[in-house]
Amino acid sequence: MTRQRPFFVQFLVPAVLVAVIFAAAMFNVLKYSFLEFVPGSLNVGGFTLENFTRINRPIYYWVLLDTFILSFATAFFALLLSYPISFALVRAERNWVRSVLVVLAITPLFTGEIVRTYSWMLVLGSDGVVNTALKSLGVIDRSVPIMYTRVGVVIALVQFAMPVMIILLATAISQINRDCEKAAANLGATPNTVFWWVTIPLTLPGILSGFVVVFAWTMSAFSTPQLIGGGKVLMISNVVYLQGFSSFNLPFAAVLSLVALFAALGSLALMKLLTARLEQNMATS
Amino acid sequence: MKNFWIGIGAVALASLATQSIAQEKLVVSTWGGNWKDGTAIIAKEFTKRTGMEVEFITGGTLDRLAKAKVAKGNPESDVTYTTSHVGALYQSDGLFEKLDMSKIPNAADLYPAGDRGGYEMGVYSYVYSPAFRTDLMPAGFKIDSWKVLWDDAMKSNLGLPDFDPSHIVIAASVMEGKSPADWESTTDKLTALKPNIKAFYQSDATSQDLIRTGETPVQVLLSINGYHLIEQGLPIEIAIPKEGAVVGIGALGINTGTKKLDAAHEFINVALDPIVQQEICEFHKCSPMNRKAKISEELAKLPGIFTTDEQWKTQAIVLDDATYAKLLPQWKTWFTENMMQ
């Protein structure tokens, strides 16, 4: 009697194919990281470990730290701003209110990153909307620098990440059993208490997954820090680009790519561990 | 009857052959935007002379280089229009054919800077030089030397390209009386410039945005972009410092492995034709490489436009492409590690 292959195996083929191609590309990156850079040529030399020793410079530690901080800040503020919108999106009683919120919250997802970043350049510039408004209100008498600062980069990244965060949070909020909230209210809890002690804990899985997704996504941000940061705020992808495509130093760019990959994987593993503990604590309490 | 069908067949075959020749196109890799429009000036004349259509592949300088490396041996394009020192990288990687100068007779009339070593020909030149918004700087402000960029008054006003720090490195070396190859002895000077840099631009578009919005009222600016902005009514002055301006050269090379070698040579020859040169330079506001090209007086008097050997000698800082290509990665790496952020 012959054993039949499970039906779902055929559906794995595309995923395996993509994984093989990805693994081959990563192997190439790994190979390049051990090859010598030859100035003035696109060709690489023989085996060397120098690319790895080069990374041991303050600038690269600062870039990594900046990447972590900017990614963390983006995930945090995106969460803070997206939660009320997601909540209103799910709980609004009128259909038209929900429709308007969906359009406002999700539409930016369909405009390109570059277009959105250019729009932010117009908003955050010295003569942009923010500075002009503040000056005309008399809050400031000369433009406040927002462009080419970490604050400017985070503002643009948060706006970029919000649609994704809103979708994830809205899904989590819609899964809440409303009877739990009603039970708490019947027992005398104020709407505020219900929100902080019932709703928020019940949406914690969504909050954590949204935070992790946005954090990981921002770790590889390129065009926003490139354009809004104007070379004064560098994230790891920008440095990879500068080394690979401006200096033509592909071996060192390969090392930086590996560092970025392992930094992202490491921080995701750490977050997974922390979120598992947090969820466990919430469940037991 | 038999002869009739043979005749019909012959006519059909001839028609197909003619069609296939007519449909054969020369593929030229060039930049997008108005750079492509400039290349189209050459293409128009080329098609007029040869009957062969030209098709463009557009992209950034370095993106196209990366693509050419991947497609080595089976090039996407027959001719590549690039910056001359990037052309040296094409050459060192075997991506450019050695040029047959007998097929480029117009090359005989070029300024020395037009000869880029036998694998590419300079078509036009521009300068990277300090430029400023006259309405945003104090009255009477002038940049007569690169040294002005180091002044305290320049603090947080300056914009530089992030993709190529060569201009400021070369200028600092020349200012210090050193050769660009000895740039390492001028790193203190370069570091002293850091407080004056407000932002780095990544492309022609961001360069223009930065100066248009006044974010960086002073820039080390590509002259062609400067003149483009002046045409749009922006009050910009392009300065040629006493030490000279750093010259960049747009050059054409033939991709190794092309099957249209003769047509590719003819394309370069057309690009160096005095009349075509004049049209390109009037269009881009750049300097011709052919001495015989006659440009308008209005264009000739602009800063950074060189039409005499004397101007090339006294106002232009020209570095050979091989040295440039070899030093640029070192400059870039040093700049990323010490000047940015």
From TrEMBL, chain A:
<feature type="domain" description="ABC transmembrane type-1">
    <location>
        <begin position="64"/>
        <end position="269"/>
    </location>
</feature>
<dbReference type="GO" id="GO:0055085">
    <property type="term" value="P:transmembrane transport"/>
</dbReference>
<feature type="transmembrane region" description="Helical">
    <location>
        <begin position="194"/>
        <end position="215"/>
    </location>
</feature>
<dbReference type="GO" id="GO:0005886">
    <property type="term" value="C:plasma membrane"/>
</dbReference>
<keyword id="KW-0812">Transmembrane</keyword>
<feature type="transmembrane region" description="Helical">
    <location>
        <begin position="7"/>
        <end position="30"/>
    </location>
</feature>
<feature type="transmembrane region" description="Helical">
    <location>
        <begin position="252"/>
        <end position="274"/>
    </location>
</feature>
<keyword id="KW-0813">Transport</keyword>
<feature type="transmembrane region" description="Helical">
    <location>
        <begin position="59"/>
        <end position="83"/>
    </location>
</feature>
<keyword id="KW-1133">Transmembrane helix</keyword>
<keyword id="KW-0472">Membrane</keyword>
<comment type="similarity">
    <text>Belongs to the binding-protein-dependent transport system permease family. CysTW subfamily.</text>
</comment>
<feature type="transmembrane region" description="Helical">
    <location>
        <begin position="95"/>
        <end position="112"/>
    </location>
</feature>
<keyword id="KW-1003">Cell membrane</keyword>
<dbReference type="InterPro" id="IPR035906">
    <property type="entry name" value="MetI-like_sf"/>
</dbReference>
<feature type="transmembrane region" description="Helical">
    <location>
        <begin position="152"/>
        <end position="174"/>
    </location>
</feature>
<protein>
    <submittedName>
        <fullName>Putative spermidine/putrescine transport system permease protein</fullName>
    </submittedName>
</protein>
<dbReference type="Pfam" id="PF00528">
    <property type="entry name" value="BPD_transp_1"/>
</dbReference>
<dbReference type="InterPro" id="IPR000515">
    <property type="entry name" value="MetI-like"/>
</dbReference>
UniProtKB/TrEMBL annotation, chain B:
<dbReference type="InterPro" id="IPR001188">
    <property type="entry name" value="Sperm_putr-bd"/>
</dbReference>
<dbReference type="GO" id="GO:0030288">
    <property type="term" value="C:outer membrane-bounded periplasmic space"/>
</dbReference>
<dbReference type="GO" id="GO:0019808">
    <property type="term" value="F:polyamine binding"/>
</dbReference>
<keyword id="KW-0732">Signal</keyword>
<dbReference type="GO" id="GO:0030975">
    <property type="term" value="F:thiamine binding"/>
</dbReference>
<feature type="signal peptide">
    <location>
        <begin position="1"/>
        <end position="22"/>
    </location>
</feature>
<dbReference type="GO" id="GO:0015846">
    <property type="term" value="P:polyamine transport"/>
</dbReference>
<dbReference type="GO" id="GO:0030976">
    <property type="term" value="F:thiamine pyrophosphate binding"/>
</dbReference>
<keyword id="KW-0574">Periplasm</keyword>
<dbReference type="InterPro" id="IPR006059">
    <property type="entry name" value="SBP"/>
</dbReference>
<protein>
    <submittedName>
        <fullName>Putative spermidine/putrescine transport system substrate-binding protein</fullName>
    </submittedName>
</protein>
<dbReference type="Pfam" id="PF13416">
    <property type="entry name" value="SBP_bac_8"/>
</dbReference>
<dbReference type="GO" id="GO:0015888">
    <property type="term" value="P:thiamine transport"/>
</dbReference>
